[in-house]
Specification:
Layout (H helix, E strand, L loop, with lengths): L9 E6 L2 E6 L14 H11 L1 E10 L5 H17 L14 E8 L8 E7 L2 H9 L13 H10 L7 E10 L23 H9 L2 E7 L5 H13 L4 E4 L2 H4 L1 H4 L4 H21 L1 H9 L1 H5 L10 H6 L8 E9 L16 E12 L5 E2 L3 E9 L11 E9 L8 H7 L1 H19 L9 E2 L3 E5 L3 E2 L5 E2 L2 E6 L6 E2 L18 H20 L4 E4 L2 E3 L2 E2 L3 E4 L10 H11 L4 H5 L11 H17 L14 H14 L4
Parallel strand pairs: 3-4, 3-6, 6-7, 7-8, 14-22
Antiparallel strand pairs: 1-2, 4-5, 9-10, 9-15, 10-12, 11-12, 12-13, 13-18, 15-18, 16-17, 19-21, 20-23, 21-22
Helix pairs in contact: 2-3, 2-9, 4-5
Length: about 625
């Protein structure tokens, strides 16, 4: 019999190459269940999580009767309107859950009432209708306390991929920062900036309803913190909503307007990132034309055509780094990104984008060599500069630091992957890496909006010369080279490396992230995307649905087996697999997008010409 001790109770046991600590006596008891690895538990949570959490934050002081009735009438309509969002999620358990927190003032007898997230609309509607609108001593209300309850009450369980807080109020919060001096406020020194930051940190998207002008300053302060921390903030401002109080009733037109304005940003946020999938589905044939079938870009031709470039300009160059110890996979949007000026470049930017990705335009950049050799035909280095599609450049370095942090996470993960791969027999020829990202800042300033002095910023990478390869994307595309007669063994091999790396990133992060959208020239990759179990505002983050899509299509290869990666697709039920497969078809039909299976060999010449242009653009894929 083995005796337990307080200091030496656990024995390290390697079970199926997962590092698990088990009590000594559990080794003697074969009936005791073994705890699942964390990444497996997280994947099961992804499959079981709900689609949407929408929490109404309702001021229920004396003046709020008309708004309370509006909210109760709108609940069932909103749930019905948003039911189509469920089609984006691969689990039959995906649902829209609604709840509310009703708040009053600090000294009121009943400061809070609430309904936890539920699908039972009738029960919630009944609870809202029975709320008593009373109390509220001064003109300001306890919004800070309401935010605290939303964040910390154990009965309010935010369990969805997408979370929304809808604020229904006709009075501002306490604190002179949030209203005019004309307001009667018993707590003028109150500040709620930390609570607002926590809402952003917890990825809770904010929708404010502007019923009276007295709440305008409060919403402006909330918006500053949200936008400053890359959160999603929406303010619904419509004259008809401001007339509710004067009419003391809610007409059908106002009800429809209320439902429409709340549903719009929710649908926009949950569906906008699907556009990446739709676009890539449309040119799915282009993604197959890779490897030996993709011709290289004639970079020298672009370099010699001076009329296609802007005049030379001086830029500061910053590197882009982080302390890898600070990366937390539970929240990849939280770690600090550092920049340091390392050089100055004389640059010429192409006048027009060479291509366009899902989110950014791509420009060619000529960087003058410091000491070019005599008679050098190309006295410059070639780089790719990227900027948002909606703008010609970035105007804030913080925007680049947040948006491109995924490349730092991916580079750090790639180093661990290469090391572990070397440990199972790889001699170094199967390594992969990601292109370094730099930040350019124009030396010359310009006058922006409201007379503010601004600078032009770009994210910059070295040009990758060679056939561009797309290995996978963020919504279920996984390259299969078995169909190509002209495939090279090298391309087939590195495709396996890329797919196993995506799989590895999920298991190594305990199931919190999956690194995908892998693309580049052989093993040198660029511009990855990070899918997060806990939804973030990073571009292209399709969260749980994207992760489930990958494992639906991914087939474990020899590298996965050598690294002891678990076959996650075995956790998908037949119903889930069928539903995932149907997602692509439904989205394509709804948006009238051609899929690969619907493209016939008899397409007319105009369609073939369009596909040819798309193939050309694919070489510059963002």
């Amino acid at each position: 019999m083995i005796k337990n001790s307080t200091r030496d109770r656990y024995l390290f046991q390697n079970i199926k190459n997962f590092n698990i600590f088990l009590p000594r006596n559990s080794l003697m008891d074969t009936t005791k269940p073994i705890k699942k690895p964390k990444f497996r538990r997280n994947f099961e949570q992804i499959l079981a999580s709900s689609t949407l959490n929408i929490l109404f934050l309702i001021d229920t002081t004396g003046s709020m009767d008309p708004y309370r009735d509006l909210c109760s009438e709108a609940i069932s309509l909103i749930s019905e309107k948003l039911s189509g969002v469920n089609a984006l999620f691969p689990s039959r358990k995906a649902v829209v859950k609604l709840g509310f927190v009703a708040y009053r003032d600090i000294k009121d007898k009943v400061p809070f009432e609430f309904c936890e997230f539920t699908q039972n609309q009738e029960n919630m509607i009944s609870m809202v209708k029975n709320l008593e609108c009373e109390g509220g001593g001064d003109e300001c209300e306890n919004v800070k306390g309401a935010f605290q309850k939303v964040l910390s009450d154990p009965n309010i369980k935010w369990d969805a991929q997408y979370k929304f807080l809808v604020m229904i109020a006709d009075s501002p919060c306490h604190g002179k920062l949030y209203h005019t001096t004309e307001e009667d406020d018993d707590y003028p020194e109150e500040i709620m900036s930390e609570e607002i930051k926590l809402l952003v940190t917890n990825e809770i998207n904010f929708i404010g309803m502007l019923f009276t002008d007295s709440t305008k300053i409060m919403y402006q302060e909330i918006e500053k913190i949200y936008k400053g921390n890359h959160g999603s903030f929406y303010l619904i401002d419509h004259e008809d909503l401001k007339n509710i109080k004067s009419h003391n009733q809610c007409s059908q037109n106002i009800l429809n307007l209320f439902v429409e304005r709340i549903s719009q940003p929710i649908e926009q946020l949950t569906k906008s990132t699907i556009n990446t999938f739709l676009k890539e589905k449309k040119i799915s044939r282009v993604f197959q034309l890779i490897g030996e079938n993709a011709s290289e870009c004639n970079w020298e031709k672009f370099g010699k055509d001076d009329d296609t470039f802007l005049p030379e300009e001086l830029y500061e160059v910053y590197n882009f780094t982080c302390d890898t110890k600070t990366i937390q996979f539970q929240n990849v949007g939280a770690f600090e990104v550092n920049t340091l000026k390392i050089n100055e470049w004389r640059c010429q930017m192409s006048t027009k984008p060479l291509g366009r990705g899902s989110f950014r335009n791509i420009y060619l950049l000529k960087v003058a060599k410091i000491e070019p050799k005599k008679d050098d035909p190309t006295p410059y280095h070639l780089y790719i500069a990227k900027a948002p599609i909606a703008k010609t450049h970035y105007t804030d370095i913080e925007e680049i630091k947040y948006e491109w942090r995924g490349s730092l996470v991916a580079s750090n993960m790639a180093k661990k992957f290469n090391k572990d791969l070397y440990g199972v027999g790889n001699e170094g020829d199967l390594t992969l890496s990601f292109n370094d990202v730099f930040i350019l800042k124009s030396k010359k300033s310009f006058e922006g909006e409201n007379g503010k002095i601004e600078y032009k910023y770009f994210a910059v990478e070295k040009v990758l010369k060679g056939p561009f390869t797309k290995y996978n994307n963020n919504f279920g595309f996984v390259a299969d080279f078995s169909q190509f007669k002209e495939k090279t063994q090298e391309l087939v091999l590195f495709n396996e490396v890329a797919q196993s790396f995506s799989h590895y990133s999920f298991q190594k992060s305990d199931g919190y992230i999956l690194i995908c959208d892998l693309q580049g020239v052989v093993q040198k990759l660029t511009d990855p995307m990070i899918l997060n179990k806990n939804k973030t505002n990073l571009q292209g983050d399709l969260s749980g649905p994207g992760i489930a899509q990958f494992f639906q299509k991914h087939q474990c290869n020899d590298i996965c087996q050598k690294l002891n990666l678990e076959k996650m697709n075995e956790l998908l039920t037949d119903d889930m697999k069928k539903e995932i497969e149907e997602i692509s078809i439904k989205l394509a039909e709804n948006n009238k997008v051609k899929t690969l299976s619907t493209i016939s060999d008899n397409d007319d010449d105009s369609e073939k010409e369009e596909e040819k242009k798309e193939e050309e653009a694919c070489r510059f894929k963002d």
